[in-house]
């Protein structure tokens, strides 16, 4: 057969066309079936992963709740166990809830307290009201507001206030925890702060203090009740060493500290008795003389 005739016969053959169409239909069917199988497999896979994720999240939530319950139980038990017994079983004990609250407080007020900055001050106030008892004994006064008032007193007097924690240790855990915090405050002095806190400072010494940063190391004691609420706060700060580092003369330091007003005057009698401030050292050495310190020193 002539090649052209053969090509024409193949091109016009209904049998071959039918066979081609049948093969094409089978290929399309198999392709669609594989697609459907793939979609079904993917759907099954996604549903299985979704169930696994839901189970995983439920397990995490359950474990988180269990951990929280165990932490609460641990905190409750710590309140009734003497510190030495806790350290015997857990040498790396971090102090529990009272120590964490103390560190949080210092962090919250590390740059002072300015009521006009509402977002920051609202957060500080909410924390303080949750952290301390409404009738907390503080520096010869009663109540949370006395703490806030004294923060305002310091923050608005000095050009800048910066506080940091040097150490934070639990001294007692049972029957109300006591936390001892050693802190360092950096107070940048100006004429207003000198006149307010050191009213008897000789005029000749004021230029030597204005613009200087007064560094005060303080030892604070945070006393908590059985529910980890702060009920009493006391502390002593070493203003003498900070002034001596600036003035370099003990007599000048003594002149600046004469009748100083580091502790605000209490204008009303507290409704409940409070522990009097510890007496100052009887020695005249400026390195050893320490004065009672407000909470701002934390």
Automatic annotation (TrEMBL):
UniProt region (Disordered), positions on chain: 267-298
Source superkingdom: Eukaryota
A GO MF term: DNA-binding transcription factor activity
Lineage: Eukaryota, Sar, Stramenopiles, Oomycota, Saprolegniomycetes
Name of the protein in question: BZIP domain-containing protein
Annotated organism of origin: Aphanomyces euteiches
UniProt entry tagged with the keyword Acyltransferase: no
Database matches in InterPro entries: bZIP_sf
Keywords, alphabetical: Coiled coil
Chain coiled-coil ranges: 53-80
């Amino acid at each position: 057969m002539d090649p052209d005739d053969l090509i024409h016969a193949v091109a016009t053959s209904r049998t071959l066309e039918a066979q081609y169409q049948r093969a094409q239909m089978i290929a399309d069917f198999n392709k669609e079936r594989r697609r459907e199988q793939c979609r079904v497999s993917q759907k099954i896979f996604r549903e299985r992963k979704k169930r696994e994720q839901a189970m995983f999240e439920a397990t995490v939530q359950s474990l988180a709740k269990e951990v929280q319950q165990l932490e609460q139980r641990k905190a409750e038990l710590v309140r009734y166990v003497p510190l030495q017994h806790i350290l015997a079983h857990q040498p790396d004990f971090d102090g529990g809830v009272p120590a964490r609250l103390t560190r949080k407080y210092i962090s919250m007020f590390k740059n002072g307290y300015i009521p006009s900055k509402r977002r920051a001050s609202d957060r500080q106030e909410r924390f303080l009201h949750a952290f301390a008892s409404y009738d907390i004994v503080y520096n010869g006064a009663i109540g949370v507001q006395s703490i806030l008032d004294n923060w305002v007193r310091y923050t608005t007097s000095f050009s800048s206030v910066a506080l940091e924690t040097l150490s934070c240790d639990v001294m007692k855990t049972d029957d109300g925890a006591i936390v001892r915090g050693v802190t360092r405050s950096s107070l940048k002095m100006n004429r207003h702060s000198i006149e307010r806190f050191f009213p008897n400072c000789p005029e000749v010494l004021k230029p030597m203090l204005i613009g200087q940063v007064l560094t005060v190391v303080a030892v604070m004691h945070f006393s908590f009740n059985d529910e980890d609420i702060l009920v009493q706060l006391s502390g002593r700060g070493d203003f003498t060493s900070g002034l001596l580092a600036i003035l370099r003369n003990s007599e000048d330091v003594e002149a600046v500290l004469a009748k100083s007003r580091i502790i605000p005057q209490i204008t009303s009698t507290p409704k409940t008795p409070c522990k009097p401030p510890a007496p100052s050292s009887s020695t005249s050495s400026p390195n050893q003389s320490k004065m009672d310190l407000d909470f701002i020193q934390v």
